[in-house]
Known about the structure:
This protein has about 170 residues and is mainly α. The chain has helices spanning about 5-15, 20-30, 45-55, 55-65, 70, 75-90, 90-100, 105-130, 155-170; strands at about 130-135, 140-145. The protein starts with a helix and ends with a helix.
Amino acid sequence: MAAAVMERVGTALQAGDFSAVVGLLDEAELCSPSASALEEGWPAALHLLGHIYNGSLPDARMLYKRLPEAVKAEPQVKAAWQLLQYAWQGSGKGVWRALRGHPWAGHCRVLVEALAERAEDAVAAALGRGWRRAGDGSGALEVVPPALARGELDSLASLEQLSEYMMQLE
């Protein structure tokens, strides 16, 4: 891959324009004169992480399917694939484990830190909208049940009792 593309990717990462990374890599892949662009030192893990960051999980899956087996065997690509699988399944706990459980290096580390920051912001926003951390220590979030207002029914038994009362009034 051309050094110019990686230079532009590095510039985008330094500027905090994380969503531009995947566009640069997609363009470089499509414009490559070589049919084996994904084999020649391609930053596959970074490309996968870029799709995950942008929320384009189907595109990330298709990219992974196009990768040669030798590239899929690289540790960072394996870790990015695991992260993608957890994100695809909606497993927040798995996503955190995948983000924090691998020693990310180079440009991938920068993008993973941005993903983690985005996830932390989402958790903080959820906590501000009436969610709370589960009491089991797992770090999972649960909805805080609203407090019952005076006169509200809190169970099926109360509803049945009210129905019987209303029938007696009729």
